[in-house]
Amino acid sequence: MTAAVLARGVRVVLGGNEILRGVDVTAQDGEVVALLGANGSGKSTFVRALVGAVPLTSGQVELLGRPLGPAVRWERIGYVPQRVSAATGVPATAGEVVTSGLLHGRRLRPPRRSRTAVRDALELVGLADRVDRPVRELSGGQQQRVLIARALVRDPELLVLDEPVAGVDLTSQKAFASTLTTLAARGRTVLVVLHELGALAPLVQRAVVLRHGAVVHDGAPPQPTREHGGADHDHVHPHDPADDLAGEGPVGLRGWGP
Amino acid sequence: MDELAGMVGDPLMQRALLAALLVGLAAPVVGTYLVQRRLSLLGDGVGHVALTGVALGWLVGSVMGLVPQDALAVPGAIVVAVIGAVVIELVRERGRTSGDVALALMFYGGIAGGVLLISIAGGTSANLMAYLFGSISTVSRGDLGLTVALTALILVVGVGLRTALFAVSHDEEFAHAAGLPVRALNVATAVVAALTVTVSMRVVGLLLVSALMIVPVAVAQLVAASFARTMSLAMAIGVVVCVTGLSLTYWYDLSPGATIVVLAVGVYTVVALVRPLVQRRRPVDPHPQVPDDVRVAA
């Protein structure tokens, strides 16, 4: 068994602040690993460093057996950044945003018949009918789904997600968990940053907990502490939870794939 | 009608019209990416820097004793504008100085450097007026050849690499994670923006170049739903305002650059005012498929 993600002694210094202080994280092929930690623990910075969006100060990263850089088979890696909005200055349709997910490495133009692949990816997240709609007209949850479709359109072997269910209600977290289960059953590796395990708890095989930029736990998923796990705990997110991933009924996020 | 034939038959006007058409086509392509990146004022910054290039070319020309003295003005503008645009991009990438402050430094340094160099070259600020406000009536065959070549390059990069440039402008972090050559694509955008500025310089002048890049895009995004549609519509608007504006100056004694830009702003105003009247739709529930989860007791 090889490691889909192999990070050794990852140190990241940004603007004089040491965000990560020698982090080791491994995800074996086909494993579902959660990266947990409080706000400011460095978990988002870690996945951003992992995919090359933030430069490493020191340490080594290997993705799918290749050292971080041009040698990585980027077309086999799907990344969903933490994001509240997918809309920007100029209008862009959901289809155009997902099409950009077909580019990688030296492939600077979308392949032929990309339209079908894009429609299939949007189908997986229940937004096939919105392919020609501008993303700025979609709700926050729908925009998040467009970004997930952008990562899935290239049928990745390794999926890296940064808080994909932040601000999304429990029902849709469950739907999202069932899709991730399908992916994991197909032997795909998933590394997911989470604020709390929530509905993904049964799926996560291993959890890595970061605190102040260092790993403090690597093993079985931790049980939530009383104040977060209690039935009376009312977890308030800053986002609008009105839209949800399962909003379109049972179609939701079920079938992934060809 | 005869007057129209007269205008089209005039070789000077033919060259000017062709240059205006090419600029109208190319400028909004780059403008679309700049608006996407919220860097609408980059064109202005590069335009100011290009003035230093004009003066530098002039200085070198007069030292070498070239006739006319400004033979190297356009090449000078191209070189300095490209360097300036790449520097702005690298400063932005490092995030050390905010893009805003970097642009401000370019604005003032560019204008001051241009005026300083032109006085060293033995000229006056008046010599710079043609570049600041455009001088399309003096477009030579050589100028036209350069405009055709640069426009072709801008269109090949700007339209040919549209998906890749969109990916980088839309979400740089995702582009990194896809292994795309993010810096190369960003620098390509900056270089193409600099070339657009220098190509448009003769038509509208350095002070109004940015308007030609941005205003057609501003109009197009009022009515278009997609990125591709915004770009093609902006190109069409750019061509129409450039050709119409320039034609007006054949009959009326107006500044071509100013006429073109005022026309473009006018189109924006009309579209912005008319759009709500045309697109009057009844507000609808954006999520009709979401089940009712709260039952209210009657």
Automatic annotation (TrEMBL), chain A:
Residues 225-242 have a biased composition (Basic and acidic residues). GO terms for molecular function: ATP binding; ATP hydrolysis activity. Transmembrane segments: none annotated. Pfam families: ABC_tran (PF00005). It comes from the Bacteria. Keywords: ATP-binding, Nucleotide-binding, Transport. SUPFAM superfamilies: P-loop containing nucleoside triphosphate hydrolases. Residues 249-258 have a biased composition (Gly residues). PROSITE patterns: ABC_TRANSPORTER_1, ABC_TRANSPORTER_2. Residues 216-258 are annotated as: Disordered. Residues 5-237 form the ABC transporter domain. InterPro entries: AAA+_ATPase (IPR003593), ABC_transporter-like_ATP-bd (IPR003439), ABC_transporter-like_CS (IPR017871), Metal_Ion_Import_ABC (IPR050153), P-loop_NTPase (IPR027417). Belongs to the ABC transporter superfamily. This is ATP-binding cassette domain-containing protein. The lineage of its organism: Bacteria, Bacillati, Actinomycetota, Actinomycetes, Micrococcales.
UniProtKB/TrEMBL annotation, chain B:
It is a multi-pass membrane protein. It comes from the Bacteria. SUPFAM superfamilies: ABC transporter involved in vitamin B12 uptake, BtuC. InterPro entries: ABC_BtuC-like, ABC_TroCD. GO terms for cellular component: ATP-binding cassette (ABC) transporter complex. One of its GO terms (biological process) is response to zinc ion. Keywords: Membrane, Transmembrane, Transmembrane helix, Transport. Gene3D superfamilies: ABC transporter involved in vitamin B12 uptake, BtuC (1.10.3470.10). It is found in: Cell membrane; Membrane. Coiled coil: none annotated. Pfam families: ABC-3. The chain crosses the membrane at residues 12-34, 46-66, 72-91, 103-124, 144-168, 180-197, 203-224, 231-252, 258-278. Belongs to the ABC-3 integral membrane protein family. This is Metal ABC transporter permease. It comes from Cellulomonas fimi.
